[in-house]
Amino acid sequence: LLGMCLITQILTGLLLAMHYTADTTLAFSSVAHTCRNVQYGWLIRNLHANGASMFFICIYLHIGRGFYYGSYLNKETWNTGVILLLTLMVNRLRRLCL
Length: 98
Fold this sequence. Notes:
Layout: H1 2-17, H2 27-36, H3 41-69, H4 75-97
Helix pairs in contact: 1-3, 2-3
């Protein structure tokens, strides 16, 4: 599930990036253009926005499964997973603030 969510995020992100303008005066209008004028642009944008939430839901399910099966007993693997989770959370917070 995580791989499918990640691939969806990458593909929709690339499709959105083709129509995005990073200029501060044109950024909003480029997003509006994508939603209104690009074929299925609204769908791609919503898939990308909701895909991020789905990705974190799958991560939390993965962590819950790790607790259930006692995977936290393998310290090195568990610590690597915690570092990855913290990195993803900081990255998500950074993107929300932008």
